[in-house]
Amino acid sequence: MKLLGKTIKGFFIFIALLIVLAYAFNYQHLFNAIKLTYLKGETSATIDDGKDFPSKNISKGIAQPWQKDALYNKTPLPKNIVENLKATNSASFLVIKNGKLIHEEYFGEYKPNTQTNSFSMAKAITALLMGFAIEDKKIQSENQKFADFYPKFNKIKYGNELTLRELSAMESGFSWDEDYKNPFLQNPRIYYGKNMSEALFQDPKFEAKPGSRFEYQSGTTQLLGFAIRKAVGMPLSSYASQKLWKPLGMESDAYWNTDENGMEKTFCCVNAIPRDYAKLGQFMLQKGNWNGKQLLDSTYIKKMITPTKNSGGIYGMGIWVNNDAPYKYYQFWGFTSQLIIVIPEKNMVVVRTGKFENEEKDNKGRSAQAAFLAENAVKTFAN
Question: How far is 372 from 359, CA to CA, in rounded Å?
């Protein structure tokens, strides 16, 4: 009994020590990670955990449901697409052709009204909101300095050179280690943490001169989100409702996860239904035009989808680009293969959501599944 008592006492001392160390080294977010992910048997964030975090609503206006094509769901998916979608634990698969819904399919417990996490597709949404803020004259241009919004950066090496474009194009030179699965690194800290401002602004550093290199970083889009939020003077969820959800006639409200201070996680975490994700793709395809009205300057859309030299031709502003494919396309791309694929040449949009934990990349670091789905959706539905 004495040995058992000592063992129990030692265990609680060990746990207490872990708690003290977590706070001492600023790893308090680990408690949230354990509670919301690891105790559920998951190894990292999933498309279903948005409901576990604070959030703000993105209100829709008058819904404008997708018009269905005459061949809606009449063309069976070929075996290779079916096998790919099942093998990658997909939740939904939708195809829009010539502005009409021609195919939609849902898997397992997922239904048309199921809201799932966008993950990094939110980076493109954030870039769109910057475009609207420029049109509203809240931001001078994408080349405005970040330090105009956060003067502290004037005192940091390279901080006074950083522009909003460089944040959206992943050319910030910011010191950031991009990894969702290592709970001790920065992505989980802002995903599970309570205060993103503290995580990003407490001791910001740069590893390179802004504009000198491409490095994909969630932290840079979150910095961009802070700047846009300050510029527009309202929650970004409200701005997204005003500029996107209401004008595009989204079919459902969405919600945007926030930290405990109410700041939207602009590097991720818009939770929406697949049909509404498809509308974002259609909006891009129509170069910012909706129902005959130019909501966003087409030249800004072009900037978003034009790949930068530093990225090796694969990334624009919040958007991944594949001009090497048989049919050129660009995409919103989020963790575990959340995809909105736009194929201008064929006037098509493809949406795939799900939980592809070990998603493959091509030799340039782009989604291999996006390339597969784009090519085979064209073969199946383009004619």
Answer: 12
